[in-house]
């Protein structure tokens, strides 16, 4: 549940301005998460969210600039969740344990955003879209290596 929640927090912060803990809590509760202020505070700290100035003069939560340590930490958190990786045409299908696909997709998006067009996560499957079958094959190899899977 933690990985799903943190993945959702990342998507929220990327897609809309969030000014306070309370605002984030309300959005998460609306999305069906049962959380407390302390849980959200821990998530903010673990994700490394920072406050940055907004165009209206207020401040909003933002993801930190990409750093190798953050990317490595995200991959390490979900590395054992990947069961199988398969390239098919210009896509790569990643099978995970139930409930882990969103976390795996978020980790991939953070470390491979220049290599992939995008990813879609279900409960236990991630679909990664690439620009060609050749790229899909290369990405499959990278993902297998990154997640140390066959």
Largest sheet, in brief, is: 4 strands, antiparallel
Task: Encode the helix/strand succession as letters.
Answer: HHHEEHEEHEEH
Say how many strands there are: 6
Specify the overall morphology: globular
What distance separates the N and C termini? 26 Å
Helix content: 40-55%
Number of helices: 6
**Rg calculated over all Cα atoms:** 16 Å
Mean pLDDT: 86
Strands across the major sheet, in which order? 3-4-6-5
Estimated structural class: alpha+beta
**What share of residues are in beta strands?**
15-25%
Contiguous low-pLDDT stretches (5 residues minimum) are none
What does this structure look like?
The relative contact order is 0.14. This protein is 48% helix and 20% strand. It has a four-stranded antiparallel β-sheet, with helices on one face. The protein is α+β, with helices and mostly antiparallel strands. The two termini are 26 Å apart.
Brief overview:
This protein is an alpha+beta fold. 48% of the residues lie in helices and 20% in strands. Strands 3-4-6-5 form a four-stranded antiparallel sheet, covered by helices on one side.
